[in-house]
Structure formats: C-alpha cells, structure tokens
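Private note to self, pasted from the team thread so I don't lose it. Backbone tokens:
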C-alpha cells in the first residue's frame, strides 16, 4: 500500500488556536501543516513564519489561493517559510508559470488547486507540461453544505495523468473525515487534507 501524506489545514483566524491544533496534529501523526487561507488573511505571513519557527521539521504549506502576481506571492510565502504554495488553477497560465519560476528560485514547490476549473482535462494537460509539483482536487465549503462531496474528480485526474504518463501527486481537500478518507485514497489521492 502506498504512503499517503496527511496534511492538516489550519483554517483559523486566530494564530494561537492554529498553533494549538498544530501541536495536537503533530502528536497525532500529521505530515504537513497548512497555513490556511483564513489564517494567512487574518494574521498575515507571520502565521507562516511562526509555524516554521515552532515546527521546523514539518513541511509548511501556504494556501495562498493565488490568482494573480504568482511570482510575488510565491516569493513572499517561500521567504516566510512555506515549502509548498497553493495557486488557483483558474489563474492564467502566465501567473502559474511565474509562480513555478519563483518556487524554483526559493526552493519551494507549487500545488495547483483545481477548484472551479471548467476546462478540466485541457488545464490538467497544460499544467502537467509546465512543471507544477502537485494537484489538489478541492470540494468547496459551499459544495459540502449542499452534500456534494465526491472523489470522482480524483479518479478522473489520476486517469488523465496515467494516460499521459505523468506522475504528479494528487491532494484532496474539502469534507474529508474519518468516515470517507479511505474512499479518497481508493480514488487515488496521495495527500489527504483535513
């Protein structure tokens, strides 16, 4: 059985609460810590710096949800301590290319969130050719509220990548819990975000 990475999203607006959960998550065996979008928006890049300072051996993911100024946003997140920076897949390809260049300059990696990408197969094809490091299939909170949690997109993404002979790890986020995490893994997820 493949090793699956457990990423814990610290989607808080209070840094102290985020740190407390991070401590518990590490005790519980999490692999990666995510400075979630609400944490970054409410506490700024200091949230990334503090997570890196307190947990230097953990991979820090910055869910920047970047859609423009890819180079700048990746640079500031990487300088703050993020090893992986999340970019929205609906961004222009030029933005994602700039993000990839910045990531290479600063020793970081790029995760592209496919949330709301309409031209799914074509976008995956292009993204897999330009050098991204991870894909993320993300069910939005609004979709979760409507009961629309499905891992079918993970399966489809893995099929597209396999058909192209590309091995890019796939993360899955949104609505993942102890009841359905195994379904996500069966669908092909390499990274589970809770």
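Design output:
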């Amino acid at each position: 059985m493949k090793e699956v990475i457990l990423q814990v999203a610290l989607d808080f607006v209070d840094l102290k609460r985020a740190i407390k959960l991070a401590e518990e998550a590490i005790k519980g065996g999490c692999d990666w810590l995510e400075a979630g979008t609400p944490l970054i928006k409410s506490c700024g890049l200091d949230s990334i710096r503090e997570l890196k300072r307190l947990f230097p051996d953990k991979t820090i993911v910055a869910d920047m949800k970047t859609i423009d100024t890819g180079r700048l946003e990746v640079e500031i997140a990487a300088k703050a301590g993020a090893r992986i920076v999340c970019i929205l897949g609906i961004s222009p390809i030029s933005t994602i290319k700039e993000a990839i260049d910045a990531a290479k300059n600063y020793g970081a990696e790029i995760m592209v969130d496919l949330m709301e990408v309409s031209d799914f197969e074509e976008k995956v094809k292009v993204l897999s050719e330009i050098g991204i490091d991870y894909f993320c299939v993300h069910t939005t909170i609004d979709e979760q509220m409507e009961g629309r949690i499905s891992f079918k997109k993970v399966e489809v993404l893995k099929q597209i990548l396999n058909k192209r002979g590309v091995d890019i790890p796939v993360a899955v986020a949104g609505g993942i819990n102890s009841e359905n995490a195994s379904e996500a893994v069966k669908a092909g997820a390499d990274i589970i975000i809770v």
